[in-house]
């Protein structure tokens, strides 16, 4: 225990009359009735310490204590009188009557009080050391540790071993942008920080390690969104000789076990499984939040012939879609609420938000309230009401546009209105989404691109589509979704070199390019590569959800801002010219070289 | 278990008559008596599989098997006849009589057989995936995992939590060279990969986490030696409210526990403790290999006045030293052996290797055999023989030069001759080296530099030396040494801002520079920083020793060469011009810009 005999936050009635030594920080100080009280804080919590004036020298020293002073106290644990028990404090039944006080380190006045709320993110990240002292941040970091350790224990018990893969790797400009590291030894060459250990873990399978995992930093130099960081932590797993369903079964067991162990929460057993096609049809999303039961109703077919341009033009687009979203009790929505939702779907590109309020379905058209219903013929209207199973009190929203806009806009509306209007359950809804397409067509690049990554195996029997119609090819890929967040994803990998080569061809990567970028993988696959597959979980995101935090920055000790800066240490920063010289690089926009740069850029 | 019911290497007599499914690689194949035998290999070991010709189709398929084919076999476990038991194989009492064979993946002929020895490092690293299939490499990676997991369990039980610190950090050009990462968002600015999480872990202590650890990649862009890698793994630990001896006691307990758990080896309890001064005096090294009991005998004082220039000139140098190394039975060494040792110490800068063979000490000078003894007067000779406690049969070697040369040369000789000539024990000799100096004087830079790092606390009572004579200042620093390797090192840190500022001044770092480089630390120390300290262990090195491996590259799955290259993936490699543009850098030695570069360099 070092300098202390007990942690502040762990003292109880059982310690009464013991002499204890505690160390920690002055959380608050009160002077009351000629006595000084402090709440002393350590990582386990708070305890009240009392300084009586009869020990004059110590009392004087206690008088100099201010918030965040670091002190050591020796004292006797004393039961509080019944009337003075503080039920809000774990240690509220006792207090420490101080006998000795040592100020280990004074503190200047902190820029904010630890219990202040609504601090700006800039303040919090600039003074991160103080921010991390707050109980919520202490809890979050411990929760993160417990989660990671529960994962390690599960994997250990299931015969997985942690094998470290390199951080200084080869740049393969596919997918996201790499962080690059100039080589000093090899002039003009660069390492890349790994976006994931994907190829290394596959090579470990080929090397016969059978069951690998790693909790590992990965890097993507992308423009940051609220839930992204330049460096993020992945629970990276790979296994040989297991089928897709074996893998899914094992890892939903892992997540169930972690939630049970860390939060005492029971997740569904088994997790429901939904195809990508169904998820898109019913929820417009490949990561539906199943806490909201509202679903899309497909109307594209019937709207092709309806005499209402907004609907029929969308329905007749090659990539068009028309759907309805029925919201029970939505007929109560006010005009201004509907306006707000209309504005909301606009964020996702929707040009409007048509609706029908079902006031009295038994009255036919007269029982409906809607700006658009006059444009819809009786037969189509009848089909709509039947398909959505309309009931009095409903509002039916419509999305009609390119499928992507409809899915994004009405999908987001589904979740928003579901949570706002009491249609969401307040529980945990895990889900497997499976049967993803192998490829999607990139209209700009005029080529097929991999939905998951180019090492994903096609479903049995789908190999032939690789050369004939890649769009029909379904992958052995799976995402684990929880409450609308993708928390993990993986696939069975290609283990035969000839299939891998076919996939590269489907992706329009020619043999030379494949060899240059992935030669080591193609080479490895030739030596009896085993059937293998795996999954990667986003640890930051899982812990954010478990902590109920608003941002992944609240579960990372020293995060970057959305401008990819560390406000605490001021990284990134300029470096010495000598360092650049050693790395054989120069700044492009070095003011001294401006003329030359301009010539170069023109 | 996925596709298999059992691992090959775990089948025993207890499985006799069971039908099992195993997956793995063909390790060897023999055709004998019309029957095909293969040894099938998985991560747990080998098992013999028998294919009988009566199942004609399967037998034909088995006939196509070659080494490293990946297969699945269903068969019946059968006891071998007593005469056919293979005691060398864990599964040698049984074999599997195959009923079904599936070739999961064929293999081309590997470039080497897995049991080949003396493969070149280039071959091994180029074909690392196959190299890793070898039982020794499988063992090494598992040993590494077990070691790391034993460390995690110990730390978990002792209330430490793993907290991740950033990989993209601020460059502080102190000590080793940083790996830099250009920022895309911030033109002209760079992140650095961490050389260690030193400042972050100290900030976690200031933030009140109390007990932190991390098993984490660190980076140094140094010219590589045999036991160094650009990226290496550190077991990084920090704790608050513990004294130097508390910390040492806890972590020698950890290492003892790990050796016991992983290798069933009992290390000394407690570890011996030696001051830096004693270590240098007796062994010429701050990491003495105590398996070799031979010690230096100090002669500098007596040699100042001896009439033998080689000795007295060294003894009278300001930084000179003269020592003897007595080696029992060394009088037997041949002329050519002595020549070889003379050449060996030359590597460390020694200009020769004087010696005296003690053949018959009772005969005075006549009983000594030596090229130098004629130059040494009787009194000095007498002192030498008494000090080293010379006995018949000894050889006494001498080192006389600048202290550094003597320490390096005679220190290395001590270890070499000790191990070669039977003076070394074959066990594990742990040791704490303590009481390091805070600073050493850099003759080139004409300034004091930190021996450990500038955040190390001085011994109690040594603070005053900081401004008066830094050379007298002893640090609360400690290294853990095992068999002559430094496997861990740490210190109690400075927790008061005013002491930290004094140390910066002693290091000739002015206030402005200190603020720019370490402002966030100085700032953090002002808010009631707790007393804290820690240690970092080199995981690669510990596992290398535990595995009895020759190189740390044998305990790293995908290491770099000594030229900092990955031969498997060919990293580092050239990158696209587009990538460089996005990062606001250009190549200095881009051929197209050669003229301009030349102008610039001149």
TrEMBL record, chains A, B:
It catalyses: tRNA(Asx) + L-aspartate + ATP = L-aspartyl-tRNA(Asx) + AMP + diphosphate. ATP binds at residues 220-222, 229, 486, 538-541. Gene3D superfamilies: Bira Bifunctional Protein, Domain 2 (3.30.930.10), GAD-like domain (3.30.1360.30), Nucleic acid-binding proteins (2.40.50.140). L-aspartate binds at residues 174, 220, 452, 493. Coiled coil: none annotated. The record marks 32, 83 as: Important for tRNA non-discrimination. SUPFAM superfamilies: Class II aaRS and biotin synthetases, GAD domain-like, Nucleic acid-binding proteins. Its main location: cytoplasm. Belongs to the class-II aminoacyl-tRNA synthetase family. Type 1 subfamily. It is found in: Cytoplasm. Keywords: Aminoacyl-tRNA synthetase, ATP-binding, Cytoplasm, Ligase, Nucleotide-binding, Protein biosynthesis. Residues 150-559 form the Aminoacyl-transfer RNA synthetases class-II family profile domain. Aspartyl-tRNA synthetase with relaxed tRNA specificity since it is able to aspartylate not only its cognate tRNA(Asp) but also tRNA(Asn). Reaction proceeds in two steps: L-aspartate is first activated by ATP to form Asp-AMP and then transferred to the acceptor end of tRNA(Asp/Asn). InterPro entries: Aa-tRNA-synt_II, aa-tRNA-synth_II, aa-tRNA-synth_II/BPL/LPL, Asp-tRNA-ligase_1, Asp-tRNA-ligase_1_N, Asp/Asn-tRNA-synth_IIb, AspRS_core, GAD-like_sf. Pfam families: GAD, tRNA-synt_2, tRNA_anti-codon. This is Aspartate--tRNA(Asp/Asn) ligase.
